[in-house]
Specification:
With 543 residues, the protein is mainly alpha-helical. Helix content is 53%, strand content 6%. The chain has 3 domains: 28-69 and 73-250, no CATH class; 286-452, no CATH class; 457-542, no CATH class. It has a 3-stranded mixed sheet, covered by helices on one side. It has a two-stranded antiparallel ribbon with strand order 4-5. A two-stranded parallel sheet has the order 6-9. It is globular.
């Protein structure tokens, strides 16, 4: 299929347009981030035997987070979402914690249920949390927990334990000490966050919701893993242990908190706007199975919304395009395993249709979500479909009945074995109102034009790093535009002048003019490198 990196003339369907460039507020210096940690360290400790290691630790994290903020993965064009997060931070965290955070909390495009706060004070919340959240209080609990890790300096403490040899096992790999420390720090962060929440106007029940979500996420991992048959406490304690700790805290705290402080309608508005963004992120990350499950889950809640029909069609189409054998596999349940008997540890693939019986675990649903299902007709009357191929045909008919423009294009791409029908479908798509992939559709229709274009090659200079190796230490050197990048580019330009059929571009230059193109090239680079690492056959296959 032809691919275009040029700007589209029509708004992207279902999701927000990316920022043109990275905004100035994300241009934080590495020294500012480094000092955010170093200013919290006891001067006696900094002057001691580990002083140099602490400075190096701060510098490494500062450079890492600066690159993250500049990576294009931070959402920077959604002011309402940023304001919502900032208000939660102000309402749940003590003033001294807020004052120690030098960078505003940010949202990332990642589709996971995760948040993090690095040792240098950068808090990142993945957009994927919206897929499972049902309250503002649960998001506040997640933020409070991550802030507690930073406030208690867990990252640095763990590094110092490492330097002291606490995790040095010699010839034997026994990570129990490190895992035990991780679990202890998680419970410490839980305790601190519980105290902060009990002193805020949020309900502590938000923390219970959070732990239940984490438990369902862990259970989902078990469902798709053949060899693991029960949840175990590894780097994090089990949810029930965390809930028991929380109930202990409830005995002496405020129990009149609220699940929503800001307008509840705003929460649900942001949530429903975030779901298509999460689905798009999954598709861009080639995680078609996860996109299929999430799209179907929300289709059950909102069966009349064409956005979920489109992502159901596209996730199935792309998955089966890359793995044709999946066409005959059961829709969704084919990826799951189950124990046939408690007498045996072995698990076997689920060999039944999703519609034989409803299983909330497969869709990682809470009881509240189960009650919100409106499309119960799937489990009533005749079976609508069983396999992926049947699912695609079913949803293509549904999309057509809805007159879903992008569903038409998906349908045309699926007909790659029948040119005449495909061209007819493409014409129908091109003549629709505001088709997003209009330029690609026209290229497919007039494919001879592709072969008549000049055959040129593109080399993308992804990145480079400068560092000093001193003994066993690797010391990064911060590279800025004023300290070496242009000299590097001039060397490349000189070397590239002898290649008449090849264009050289630096990925960092693309980022200055088009975040969308920058992200596309970044994902393409990740796809190629992941493929290379997984197979070792990059040179043979991609030629």
């Amino acid at each position: 299929m032809a691919c275009s990196l040029s700007a589209q003339s029509n708004p992207k369907p279902f999701v927000r347009e990316s920022s043109t460039v990275i905004p100035e507020f994300l241009n934080v210096s590495a020294s500012q981030l480094s000092n955010n940690l170093l200013n919290k360290v006891d001067p006696v400790l900094k002057a001691g035997v580990y002083g140099r290691a602490i400075s190096l630790f701060a510098d490494q994290w500062a450079n890492y987070e600066r690159r993250n903020l500049q990576s294009g993965e931070v959402i920077s064009n959604w002011p309402e979402l940023d304001a919502y997060l900032k208000t939660i931070v102000e309402n749940v965290l003590p003033k001294e914690v807020i004052q120690s955070i030098q960078v505003n909390p940010v949202w990332t495009r990642r589709y996971y249920f995760n948040a993090s706060m690095s040792p240098v004070g950068v808090m990142k919340v993945d957009l994927g949390v919206w897929a499972n959240l049902d309250s503002e209080a649960a998001l506040a609990a997640l933020i409070a927990h991550e802030a507690a890790h930073f406030y208690m300096m867990h990252g640095l403490k763990k590094r110092l334990r490492q330097l002291e040899g606490h995790y040095d096992y010699g010839m034997v790999d026994l990570p129990e000490r490190e895992l035990a420390d991780s679990r202890k720090m998680e419970l410490e962060a839980d305790s601190a966050s519980h105290a902060w929440i009990m002193n805020s106007i949020y309900s502590i029940d938000g923390s219970i919701e959070l732990y239940k979500i984490l438990e369902r996420e862990s259970q989902q991992y078990l469902n798709v893993t053949r060899k693991v048959d029960k949840l175990e406490a590894r780097s994090h304690p089990l949810s029930q242990e965390r809930i028991d700790l929380l109930f202990e805290a409830r005995k002496n705290g405020n129990l009149d908190g609220k699940m929503f402080i800001q307008d509840e309608d705003v929460f649900w508005k942001l949530k429903l706007e975030a779901i298509p963004e999460i689905l798009e992120s999954m598709m861009q990350g080639f995680n078609y199975e996860r996109a299929k499950v999430l799209a179907f889950k929300y289709h059950l809640f909102y069966p009349d919304e064409e956005v979920y029909i489109y992502y159901l069609m596209e996730s199935v189409r792309r998955q089966c395009y890359y793995n044709p054998e999946k066409k005959a596999n059961y829709f969704i349940t084919d990826e799951y395993y189950e124990k046939l008997s408690d007498k045996f540890d072995n698990k076997t693939k689920v060999k039944r249709s999703l519609f034989e019986k409803f299983d909330p675990q497969i869709l990682s649903m809470s009881s509240a979500e189960y009650r919100r299902i409106t499309a119960r007709f799937y489990w009533e009357g005749d079976v609508k479909f069983n396999t992926n191929a049947e699912a695609y045909r079913f949803y293509s008919i549904v999309g057509e009945s809805m007159d879903c423009t992008e569903c038409k294009f998906s349908n045309s791409l699926n007909l790659f074995n029948n040119d005449s029908i495909r061209i007819s479908k493409i014409n129908d798509y091109i003549n629709s109102e505001s088709p997003y992939f209009d330029d690609i559709a026209r290229l497919i229709k007039d494919k001879e034009e592709i072969y008549q274009r000049p055959k040129r090659k593109l080399t993308v200079l992804v990145d480079y790093s400068a560092f000093i190796i001193e003994g066993k230490e690797t010391i990064p050197i911060q590279i800025t535009e004023n300290s070496g990048v242009q000299k590097f580019i001039s060397v490349i330009d000189s070397a590239a002048s002898s290649f008449d059929d090849r264009t050289f571009i630096a990925l960092q230059d693309v980022k200055k003019t088009s975040i969308e193109t920058f992200l596309t090239l970044t994902r393409l680079h990740k796809l190629v490198t992941d493929f290379d690492q997984a197979t070792g056959y990059y040179n043979n296959v991609w030629k």
